[in-house]
Amino acid sequence: MSETPSNGRPKIAFFDFASCEGCQLTVVDSLQTHLDLLNAVEIVQFREAMTEKGEDYQIAFIEGSCTREADEARLLEIREQADVVVALGACAHLGGVNALKNLHPLEDTRRWVYGDKADWYGTYEARPIGAVIEVDLAIPGCPIDREEFVRVVKAVLIGKTPPIPDYPVCVECKLKENVCLFDIGKFCLGPVVRAGCDAICPTYGDGCEGCRGFIPHPNQNAMKDVLAKAGLTVEEVMSRMTMFNTYQLQEQLVEEEGR
Amino acid sequence: MKIEVHHVTRVEGHGDIVVDTENGEIKECRFEVVEAPRFFEAFVRGRPYYELSHITSRICGICAVGHATASLQATEKALGVELSEQTVLLRKLMFHGEMIDSHVLHTYYLVAPDFLGVGSVIPLASSHPAVVERALRIKKLSGDVCAMVGGRHTHPVAMAVGGFTHLPSEVELRAMRARFVDARVDMDESIALFGTLPWPEFERETEYVSLKKDDEYALIDGTIVSSDGFSYPIEDYRKVTNETCVPFSTAKWTHHNRDSYMVGALARFNNNYDQLHPRAQEAAAKLGMKPLVTNTFLNSAAQAIEMVHCIEDSIEIMDELLTRGIKPETPPEVDVRAGEGVGACDVPRGILFHHYVYDENGICTDANCIIPTGQNMANLNADMKALVPQVLDRSQDEIRLLLEMLVRAYDPCISCSAHFLNVEFV
Q1: Chain B partners of A26 at a C-beta cutoff of 8 Å?
Q2: Which residue in chain A is spatially nearest to B137 when comparing CA positions?
Q3: Of A259, B145, B223, B266, which has fewest CB within 10 angstroms of its CB?
Q4: Which CATH number goes with the domain that contains B133?
Q5: Domain coverage including residue B286
Q6: What pTM was estimated for this model as a whole?
Q7: Maximum average pLDDT range among A66-70, A112-116, A195-199, B245-249
Q8: ipTM beyond cut 0.90
């Protein structure tokens, strides 16, 4: 970035842990329609897309879950340096699909994949980055929504709290005038999952799988009843609830047991 | 001399280069995969069949459609689900969209900066605006065609077992077709650009492995073929891949007839050149390429040629869809039963296998997935060991850059490679 002087633009950096890097790709894709973002910030580190590497960033975007102890130090370093830490996408925000492995005994998972070489490769239960460091805000989704990313960056740049919805997907789905999937024999977590995705999955004919996490105070039991009434078995209900939210549900269980 | 590149940039995922030479002798020379493993094949056990493609597309943000396609294919074979001709056409169209998307990302965003003497595509926005605008335009087109069919490219929504939960309208298809026709100009200019790049000279013949089909340039399904004359049904994929663990890599290595083999655009180009669209063959002629091409660096050039092929084939697919008319199909009812199936696709980085076993309730009990980048690891290391002695007289910085470019030439998808590995399969 030596060609373009900083001119007081905030320096931002991108980091990734256990993830598919799809959220960072979505960031790259946001440039198709928002190339002017590059005039508002200075990207000093983005390994997937650039070689230059600066450590003097103020805003850190982190994609991916923490899945091994060895990665905690790197997270702590980022927290130490950045004024604002943003969890980018479901893996960083919730643990996401990575946390599905937490449903199995860890040793079993390791042996299953690496056999008698399991000890060569360190791993522990997958967790959102918020379980390791303090996170200032999260951009939910698997992957993140391109337009929401741009909105959040703009809000952070002017020091505002970004407008992440806390109402359910159903609100956006209704605004799109979609036929409710329950009415056509399908299943959806829309009533208890955070909106902001423009209800993309129901719009494309597939029920919400919960990638943006639950809304505050979700009525999970009512949701389970609705799914069961629509024909899902108990196992299938749990399967749908856990796809992206295993870590949250397990934490919730621990909390309830502690009470 | 010691070269250590910690976390090679402009690749997908985390890998390190380690080279150590003494008096012209190589002591160490290798590419390490340090990506955190994610254990997909362990945790898809216990999940219902209809979730598998949605979970496994999350292995990779770049080749999400490829994973979903191979995954659905494995599930459909296991459960005996037949596809309509319309579904086959729409899957091909999405697959082409992803191929173009991935190839433009790699050739323009990740590789081109090496030749233009910059560290990323960002400074090119001011120094070479026409190039960057073209790249953004192609990227947008490929993303838009995936969105039209499946909702989005990264983690497609509408791809389901047996069909699609959403269909594009004919109006959308016609508009998209027109944009693909317009993209021919961008393809011509891309080929012209890649023809001017000073590709490093480096020849090392290896075994090239890809899918093959009788009637088309094989990308989805087919048989496994190798340039050493072998051919296998995809169910026998293990005879090709022979995976082993290596201590410095969370991605496993593979070998077949030799110590290593190569998969990806160059392997497909070498094995299936005759089936490329005539316009893609013309593009190859402009780049001076005809099989057998043994310069690994030209894998990126082969990707540019494949972009031309995918643009042309997409136009033909859309023509066929428009002639037939879009039928309001929904995915068929699945007759759930116990079964086992293998899916194989030649995704942007090479041949990809998904293999599942389901119990009588359609719950996954075993899974295996073998990723292109894992299959290229041994070959990349062999290339590095061949290249380093040829360039030892150059400066350390030059050698480092050349090795990074070699790694990038493979377009490694490291997060994929360390995500879905299996040692034992019952």
Answers
A1: 61, 154
A2: A32
A3: A259
A4: 1.10.645.10
A5: 50-350
A6: 0.94
A7: A195-199
A8: yes
